Amino acid sequence: MRHPRFGLHARPLVGALMCTLTLAACGPAEELDAAQGVPAPELGEKQSEVVYGTDNRQDVYAHTNATLRLRAQQATVALMNPSDFNASNPNNVTFTGAALGSAYNLCSTERFRDDPTSAFCSGTLIADDLVLTAGHCVTSASACTETRLVFNYYRTAAGSLQTVTTADIYSCTSIVARQQGTVNGQNLDYAVLRLDRPATPRFTPAPVRTGNTALTVGQNVAVIGSGSGIPFKIDSGGTVRDTRSGTLDYFVATTDTFGGNSGSGVYETSSYTVAGILVRGETDYVTSGSCRVVNVCSETGCRGEDITYVYPAIRAFCAATNNGNTQLCSGLPPPPPPPANSYAYTATNTNSAQQNTVDKTLTFAAGDVVELGTCGVDGAVVDGDSFLRLTNSAGTEVANNDDSCGGRGSYIKYTVPAAGSFTIRGGCYSSGSCGGTLVWKVTPGTPGGGGSSGSFNFSASNTNSAQQNTVNQSVTAAAGQVIQLGTCTVSGGSGTGDTYLRLYGPTGTQVAGNDDGSGCGTLSYLTYTVPASAAGSYQIRAGCYSSNTCSGTVAYTIQ
């Protein structure tokens, strides 16, 4: 998750792209110089970190404050890739990152030159199985899967690292809440990650600052993390420059922090509570002859380091989990009661909602438009990566969904072809654990039917996946109606071979297509909701995958 350079072994491409595209303060990376004294940048601008005045960074063993040492030992994590360490001996994990001096071509005068550079970001344990970090550190479910959260990454004496075992290393199972960008005028960068198991009582969460109020200018703050990827350092010499009290999205301080400190917990030293998350700052290192040195600014110089206030992250977490953590959410308004048309569930090892699911059976009328989800319906809540399936009274699956609403929630919209009972199956992606509140909404069909249905037979060959030589059928649909069509799933649909269906709108542009429908093998099924401005004639085009030959009956309903 950082750009390979100065002898560092190459990282996975996705990590390099993340740092390149988000342009945020990632791990040890080639940093861009920032002009001194400029206004705080938007999240899209790449900035790193720097030393202000005296370099106040200290190893954990060397810091005089017992409470800050405890926060480093018990609540701080280093975010790493599996390739950043060697766990072949589970009782003595070693770290494979290049030494700081060689990784950055540092001059012999620079500090911590022999430290390994294994971390790409930092984080803080804030509950039994929750870690707070920066949103640009873990940007997707796949990035979460590849991330390891490592405790005990600190020195116990000069030249000695605390022994790390595999019991100190956790996996990220889901992103519970995340933001990276400007939302409602707030420039935010945070993520709350769920671990694969509770870290307590082995480790102790750090207390989090409550209340949505600004810090004060001149207030002392401390930061703990893996600047430049090295073992945890404590800097307790920072002061707040700008509170941004008008927006309460981030504050600016003079912390001595580096790339790799992204996601670090920033503490109020008056209470030792986490007040913010380190996200952006000044350039790390500058050239001095043939080598590089730490970039040093005066206490009042340069632009300062940007630290996202912790409150927006906690507020988002509590909203996503219906105030699911008493300690973190106790000061927030109680969540609204779940809708009557809902049920809460938790599940694990459901094989993508094919076993161990939590089910609900409902009866719908012909033409009913059913919406259901852990997102996309008012009152729906998701915690983790949900997976939903809908089956009819015969046990045949008619719809499913994994990821919707721009995240890991699930949403299905289905028009009922014939009255009957249907079963919602609530589960989780793959073998993971998840939960939430599943809500359904039913919009009755138009009185007297208000829709239409039909079918047509076809036999085709060499259609280039339904782009030539197709068998076509035109239908008319009104705004808001749902078109369902298929050689499977829709009553009357059938096929032999590998069918392929496409649907074209009134302007002649394709609006939907399907090759292999869920649970249909090589047959096809799709559904499409007509937008408000797109009523008119639609054309169904039936063909075969690639240049193959196939045939069947395309059935459709419009409700």
General description of the model:
One of its GO terms (molecular function) is peptidase activity. The protein is mainly beta and 559 residues long. 8% of the residues lie in helices and 40% in strands. The protein contains six helices and 39 strands. The chain has a six-stranded antiparallel β-barrel with strand order 13-14-15-21-17-16. It has a six-stranded antiparallel β-barrel with strand order 3-6-7-12-11-8. Strand 4 and strand 5 form a beta hairpin. It starts with 12 loop residues before the first helix and ends with a strand.
Produce a short descriptive summary:
This protein is mainly beta and 559 residues long. 8% of the residues lie in helices and 40% in strands. The two termini are 48 Å apart.
Task: Briefly note the structural class of the backbone.
Answer: mainly beta
Strand residue content? 35-45%
Give the spatial strand order of the biggest sheet: 13-14-15-21-17-16
Mean pLDDT, nearest integer?
86
What share of the residues lie within helices?
under 10%
Major sheet attributes: 6 strands, antiparallel, barrel
Could you tell me how far the N terminus lies from the C terminus, measured between alpha carbons in angstroms? Answer: 48 Å
Give the total of beta strands.
39
**What is Rg?**
28 Å
| Count of individual helical segments | 6
Shape annotation: elongated
Could you name the ranges where pLDDT drops below 50 across 5 or more consecutive residues? Answer: 1-48
